[in-house]
# Entry
Amino acid sequence: MKRKLFLILLLLLITINISGCWSKKELNEIAIILGTGVDYTKDNKIQLTYQLARPAAFGGGGMGGGPGGGAAMNQNITWVVSATGDTVFDAQKRLAQQIPRHLYLGHNVVLILDERLCRHGVLDVINFFHRQPLSRGTVWVMATPQEAKKVLESHSELQMTSAQAVGFLARLRTGYVLRFRDFSQDLASRGTNPVLTQVELKRQGVAQGPGLEKVHHHQEIVLTGAAIFKGDKLIGWLDCRETQGLRWLLKGEVRRMGVTIPSPICPGKKISLEVMKGKINIDPVYQKGKIKFFLTIKAEIDVIEQQDEEDFTRPEMIKAVENIAAAEIRQRVKTTLDKVQGEYKVDSFGFGEAFHRKHKREWSKLKNRWDEEFANAQVYLTVKVKLRDTGLQGRRASLKR
Amino acid sequence: MIYATLILFIPQNTVAHAKQDAWLSFLIAFAGGVLISLVVINLSLRFPGKTLFEYLPLILGRWPGKIIGFFYVWLFIHFCALVDREYCSTIVAAFMPETPLVVFLIHGTTMSAYITYCGLEVLARINQLFLPLNAGLLTILFALATPEMKVANILPVFDTGLLPLVKSTITPLSWFGEIITLAVIVPYLAEQKNVYRLTIKALFFVLVLIEIATVGVLLVFGPTLTSSYFFPVLSGTKMINIANFIERLEIIPIVIWITSGTVKGALFLWAAALGSSQLLGLKDYRPLILPLAVIVTSLSYLLHPSIIDLLNFLTQTFPFYALTFEFGIPFLLLIIVLIKGSGKK
# Structure
């Protein structure tokens, strides 16, 4: 009898526990944040913008399956809301008063910071994204010269939302991109300075199709370069071309980058190459108080397109293309290096960390004024290019011989 | 019966001192752990079939031995409370901030108490079940995190110098020192002859697990970020994203923490219960489990007002306090035994 009673009690206890409904947040009670934007307003406040998914619009598109490609045409698939406050959390609490659900940061894709904030210093706002248990280090961090709120108030033609679209753009490594974890690491390191992706809202194509005649200008978020920081403050931008040089200087960031070079034999004609593998080796040398960096870039490239008539089955031709490609890559890297090292005078490439790894004794003396030391350092550059493949052809077809 | 103390918690305070060389300090701590276990086993083998609480009076005399014995009972209660508090606080801080801590504590201690009630064999069997699971999960976890790892993060080696390295060793050493529980377990082991070998094997296994976690986390975050996180392993797990498909694996560290925490708590609870029954001259330790479990629950709730306080205690006070019992007293006992020549050779 006693045993039975005990068992019944136990069962009751288990029932209570197994339901596990204490801190529950049901799916239909949360507002999923896809994109976050932070602006620094003119009166020195923080403006927080969230791009929230509207599941109703998502579901309508999928299940309806009717003509017109879903609900995105007729209703907003996202809801962009913003509020200002003294801190990010302060702003979020103000937002929470307008949104009838729990804000859920776990699916955030991008964090976009505007130029004013970046110039003021990002340390003021990023702590929230560290402390918050729900936010992740995999979020893409980007800077924009426009207003972050405006950038998020956009939509994508191909993806469900513009935040997801820019996330996919980043995953494809079409430009220089950086995640929150790496951004935090760069901020915390004395041997490097963070570089953020630059994004802008740009007019992309003309809307087509019935009923869309009035929509002329479709704007999409695009990657347009990089933002150079000194410490936590923005000091300048790099354009697309300079960003390519930057990607060479940062390890393993060049895969599938295009390089177009002039033809070795035919003036005015071009050859396009695709980088299949790229590596940079940084060799810091410290001699009599002078810092020197010997950089060796090794690249494997494929020929993708040629305008001239040369025959790639000839070994001399391969050699010539390799040399010109090396010179071209060298030129690009040099441009970026000159701009960042010469004009902005910061180490954005992690050279300081490479120096630290090799000369740890000297590093402790130099680390507090590394950027100044770096600005005076000499950089020697060697580029070695190997032509790996020439696509499906050795020499061109459609030529009269 | 092989037993491994699971010390799978937070390798973060060590990183604050040793920076990227934290993995080295765990190696040193392992050596210290081996030394402690050698002392403890040597003592136990000198008094075959007797636990720490039984041979303490034999060495020190009746009353002093009992008093020291009660200190050890307290130590095991405290260990148990700390272990429960550690993993419960993790859940509250990282996942369910609205749920009161005491809810998790009651659940954890109830489980531990039930295991203890079933006896040492059940405890060992449960560990047999969970240990491979946890080791496997941990390995898989960090294998999945390899795309996020950068070797440069743990270079250069020996950057901070010797003193910070030694400083950083103390906390992990006190964790390895929890092997002191062997002083209670050894009489119950089936293979008395292989105790040394088994213990060192078990310690080595623990070392491997800890190194996987430490090196893994360091490779993912580098020293600065690692030392800023309360739960680096958890934050490391959040970085895993393979093909936008395998991600959000936070449940894995939680499974590891809860299972290993329960078993570890049960072990200390068992040691405390057995110890107090032997000191008081009771035949059975089971009636003591319930009151002890209640003490443990309230103790772990009341000891620390916040997780920061807990971590400060664990890194600043705990090592010296624990090492006194883990190393100081057993070492002194061994010396006394050697001088007096009591016990079996």
